[in-house]
Amino acid sequence: GLPAALPTLPLELTVLYNSLLFTAGASDSAIKGEAEGIHQGLLRVLEACGACGQDLSMEELWQKVLQEVTVKELQAPLHRLGALQAAWWLAAGRLGSVAGLFQLLNTAEEPGRSHCSEVQNELLSLIKAWRVPPEGASLSLVQSAKDLKEILCTAAAFLQGLQELEAGNFPTALSLLQEAAGGFCSKKILAQIYTCLGCCAQRMGKPQTALQHLKRALRVDFQCLPALSHVAAVYHELGETDAELQALTLLYEALGKNPPAAASSSPYFLMRTELLVHTPVLTSLLRHHHPSEVKYLLAQRCLQDGRVADAVEHYLDFLSLLQEGLQQQVPLDGSSALPRIPEVFLEAASALEQAGRHQDAITMCEEVISRTTDLIPRVLRVEERLEQPECSLPGAELAGGLLSQKKESLCCLAWRAAGYLHQGWAWAELGESKEAITQFSRCLSDLLRLQLHGSGVKPTDNLQAEVEVLQKIRLLSLIGRGSQFLELGRHKEALLDFQHSLQISPGNPDAASYLVQALWKLNRKQEAAAQWQKLSQSSPGEDGQQGQGRPLPLYLVSCLEQAMFPHSEPLARSIQDYLGTAAQDTSS
Description:
By secondary structure, the protein is mainly α. The chain has helices at about 10-25, 35-50, 60-70, 70-90, 95-110, 120-130, 145-165, 170-180, 185-205, 205-220, 225-240, 240-255, 280-285, 290-305, 310-320, 325-330, 340-355, 360-370, 395-430, 435-445, 460-485, 490-505, 510-520, 525-535, 555-560, 570-585; strands at about 380-385, 450-455. It has a domain at about 1-110 and about 125-130. The relative contact order is 0.05.
C-alpha cells in the first residue's frame, strides 16, 4: 500500500519477477490467463514517474512504459519482467503480442535500430536479438533471464511449428520444429518435439524419416508412448505388419505398467517449456491410448492380415475388458480408435468363424441379435428428400435429431442382420444347410423393414453408407441361402435367390456364376450357356459392388469371401462341350 518510489522500484520489480516464477513453477500445470502482478507492477512504475495508465490494455501499457520510462536503474528489471510477460503471452498463443513486445524491448536498447530484418522467422529473430540485461550483484534471481530467453526461443519455435503443421505448411513446420529440438528444454519436451517432427515427416510422405524422428523420441524418453503409437501407424502405412504388431504389443505392455513419476522433467527450472506449450493440435498428436484401444488395434490388424488365431485371442481379451467398465475408460469425443461395440462382437465372430470355431461364432452373434432387437422400428423408411438441414433454418435442430436417430436405427438393423448372416454361414460350414437357410431367411426378413422411398429410391448422402451396407448384407444373404438350396437340391428356390441377387447387384460375378449352376442343374442348358458366355465376356471391373468406393466393414469381409463362387472345372467343361455340340449342329 506504500506509494511507488523510484529508489525502491528495482527491488520491487525483482521481487515481483521472482514471485511470479515461483507461482508458475509451483503449479506444475500450463500457464493460463493474465499475470495480474505484472499489470500492477507497470502501473506502479508509471506512478513513480508521474504518469498514469489505468485504462490501457497490457500491450498499450508496455508500450507506454518502455517508451516513456528512461530511468537507467529500471531498464534491467523491466526487461526481465518483459520476458516473463512474453512467457504468459506465449502460453496464451498471443504470438503477435510477443513479437510486438520484443520489438519494443529491442528498440528501447537501441532506438535507432529496427529488428524487422528479412529473417526466416520474425518472432524468433526478435527474441534472439534481445540482449539479456546484466544481473546485479545485490539482487538474486530464482531463474536467470538468460535461461528464460532460451526457453522463450524454444517455446516460440515449438508453438509456431505446431501452427504450421496444423495449417498443412509442412516444410515450414519441419524447420521450426527442428529449431525447437535444438533449443533449451527437458527430455520430456524434446521427445514430444521429435514426435511432432515424425508426424510432420509422415504427412510429407516421408515414412522412413518419420520413423527416425519417432525412434529418437523414444530414445530420449521411452515414457513418450504416443511416439510408439505413431511408429505403429507408420509401419501400417508401409505395409510392414510384423513391425506394426510388434510396436502395438510393446505399447500395450508399456501402458499396463505404472510410469515413474516425472521421470523426464527438469525440476530445477521454475519456468519451463512445457508450461508454455499446450495447444489442441499437440494434445491430439500426443493423445495417450487406453490399453483396450491398443488391444482392439492388435485384434483388428491380425484379422485384416489373416492371422486368425492371434485375432481370436486379442478379440476375446478385448471383450473381457468390457467387464471392467470400458465405456468409462475410453474417451467418447470421437478420438478413440474403437468402433461401436456391436461391430467388435461381429468382428470377433468373423475371426472365430475363420478359426473354425463356428459354434462360438454363433453364440457371439446371438449376443448382438438379442441386444439390438428392441432398438429397431418395425418399419424403417428412408426418403430421398430427407437431407441434413441448414443450421440456421427453423426446426433444423429437430430435423437433425431425426436424421441422427434414423442413422442409428439403420446401424442397429445392419448389426442384427449381419448377426443372422454370420450365423447362416457358420451353420453352412457345419453342414447344417436347413439351419443355415433359416438364419439367412431371418436376415432377409429383417431387411424387409427397410423401405426406400422417392424417385429412383436412392438415399441421400447422409444415409448412403448405411443403406449400402444393408444392400450388401442382403446380397450376401441371398447368395448364401441360394447356395444352401443348391446343397439340398432345391434348385428352383436357389434360382430365384440368385436372380434376386443380380437385381440388387447387376453383373455380380459370384451371383452370376451361381445362377449358371442353378440353370444347369435345372436342365435349362441353353440359358445356362448364354449366361456363362455373358459372364466370360464381362471384365472383372464391371461388378460395381463397392458403391461409391467405400470400404466394406471389416465384419463383412469374411462373408464376402464365403459368398465367392467355388469355380467348378467340370461345370465349365460341360458348358463348353454343350456349346461345341450346339455349334456343330448349327453348321450341319
